[in-house]
Amino acid sequence: MRFWVKSDNKITIALIILLMFSFCLNTCGIWWGLPSFSGWAPDELIPLRVIEGIEKGFSNGWHYKYPPVHFYILAVLYSPAWLLHKLNIIDIYSLPAYTVLFYIGRFLTALMGAALLVIIYRCGLEIYDKKSSLWAVLIIALSVPFIYYSKTINLEVPYLVWVMLSLLFYLKLLKYHHLKDYLLFALTAAIAVCTKDQSYAFYLLTPIFIVADHHRYLKQYNPDITLKESLTDKKIILSLVVGIGAFLLLQNIIFNLPGFLKHVKLITTGGGSIRPRYEQNIFGQLEMFRQTLTHLRFSLGWPIYIMCLLGFASILSRFKKNYLFVSLFVPTISYYLFYVCVVWYNTVRYLMPLTLILALCGGKFLGEFLNPEKKLFKAKVSLVTSLFVYTFAYGFSVNILMMQDSRYYVEKWMQQNIDPSALILNTGGNKYSPRLDNFKAENVDNPSLELLSQKKANYVIVSSSYDIRRFKKNTPEYAFFDDLNKEINYKLVLKYQSQPKWNLFNQKELSYRELDKMYIYSNIDKINPEITIFKKK
Hints:
By secondary structure, this protein is mainly α. The chain has 22 helices and seven strands. Strand 5 and strand 6 form a beta hairpin.
């Protein structure tokens, strides 16, 4: 008994250390692109969007391309500053105050990242042992997208916190069939959908599986019970009421129905909708699935990716023994079928849920592989240790690229070499270019030679995140970039990209682009872009 207590204490201590380590990993580079009014992270939920919601009370037609739940949480954290602004004590729109809000939002994400790891650990406890759960946490903590998105105000980590929390209650309800777990599953599922719309896809096949398992459970006690009677059981009815009620409440339907309808229109047919990336046929789906495997490999790194696949194969080979674990594949498959396959769009961040489930598979593999009672235990420990050292270096490359982002150097060069009164034409947008708050600059989304002639800019800035590779020949944008590269009217005065020694990413794979075709579709290539500056001759 004492042995088990000591063992449990060691695992608890190891978990706490791992959480602290992960938090440090995720806050390293949290200052990336700050101070700024926009930041450098694409699709980041900048403070201005939350302030707009506060000003409107998230009613009166308020809407955005994302649902409101994380806006509410940030609004609570931003409210003291907003009140001080209303009392004319501070100017919330001044760069220092605005940057503080940025940091508050990013640190919240880092804390939610730690919460996500705890939830992953708890999910592991429901399906296997503590050691395997700890390995799963370590895998996630070192994964590339987790390290990146745990330090920005993107919604990836927040929505996954609610999704995985709902899946924890999903495992519990399948295991124990307690009413509270049904209700908590419904509640957290609603919160997930109201945090990021794509979460809906987890909950299309999952309720069907829950009803089937619930019916099987009831038949153990009443063999004559019908499916209709199971469907009308209070657990199912109350769960439905809680889920729908929470959704309507969180979406503020009563006071903001027009805003909700505008949001739905925006994400289905407007600027928030997703343009399909693959041919909409079976061959397109097969190509997208191949890309899925590539993205999962990039997210985890080769060694951990292989371990996770071995764990996945082991689980499937013992299907009946791992019934509860296999049940986790239901919401995962549901998500892939009803979101990824529907939008025909595949990126690293869209596949983060699959990465989490694969990590649980990897945890199981490592828990069995590193069994002290089996042969070559010490050799196995040495092998796994070396592989995780590599994986740490691989994942930490995100932080290195952030801390040594090329734009820091470019900004210093500009301060020393460009007159603040000179007109700068910025073709990369705020997210892809150096910060230009202290310069006379204009952002251009669709550059052309005609526009360049009209503006008569003294300098033009080009980012590798938005350059000639995005455009077809014979388009105005292609002609614009081609003219610059030939140095016809402008001469090259700076071309710079940081080359950190600690960077284990395959840069050719990561940065390759030909129109919409890429090897890795992610936001990682937006870190440390090559910046080119041209000066008018």
